[in-house]
Design brief:
- The chain is of the alpha/beta class.
- It has a single domain, classed as 3-Layer(aba) Sandwich (Rossmann fold).
- The protein is built from three helices and seven strands.
- Strands 3-4-2-5-6-1-7 form a seven-stranded parallel beta sheet, sandwiched between helices.
- The N and C termini lie far apart (32 Å).
- 27% of the residues are buried.
Length: 141
């Protein structure tokens, strides 16, 4: 069954997602990043090219010809999911295809609207019996 991890009180969701991608790569995991908003997907793509804190993270969009060989894929829609180890959700709603993954990461910012949407996702997963863990990133400052 899919394991769900919530990382809460995160200052910068995209930068934190980049750090999680870097950590997953160091563990030889492949990552799908779900960003259904085109502008959000573009910002995250750009961040992975330019953020010095994470170094270079090999990535591409899910529809790219190199997707099968690339460890981090950015999805704007379900489309063709090439691996199912880890999904990082950057959407406000739960991804309809989440259950095919071994692990799903939900990142919750300090923004009130984002936290409210995350509580709904948390209830959705909990009510369906998924194993969940919460990591308070505000406490680690």
């Amino acid at each position: 069954m899919t394991r769900i991890d919530f990382y809460t009180k995160v200052d910068d969701k995209l930068r934190f997602a980049g750090k999680l991608c870097a950590k997953a790569l160091s563990q030889k995991l492949r990552v799908n990043v779900y960003a259904p908003d085109a502008a959000l997907a573009e910002r995250f793509d750009r961040l992975l090219w330019t953020d010095n804190a994470t170094g270079f993270i090999p990535h591409c969009r899910a529809g790219d010809p190199l997707a099968a060989e690339t460890p981090v894929l950015i999805h704007e829609r379900e489309g063709e999911l090439l691996h199912d180890a880890l999904l990082i959700n950057l959407d406000a709603a739960w991804p309809p295809f989440f259950s095919r993954f071994e692990r799903v990461i939900e990142i919750v910012s300090t923004d009130t609207q984002d936290a409210t949407a995350a509580r709904e996702r948390f209830r959705f997963y909990r009510d369906r019996g998924y194993a969940m863990q919460t990591h308070d990133m505000g406490a680690s400052k």
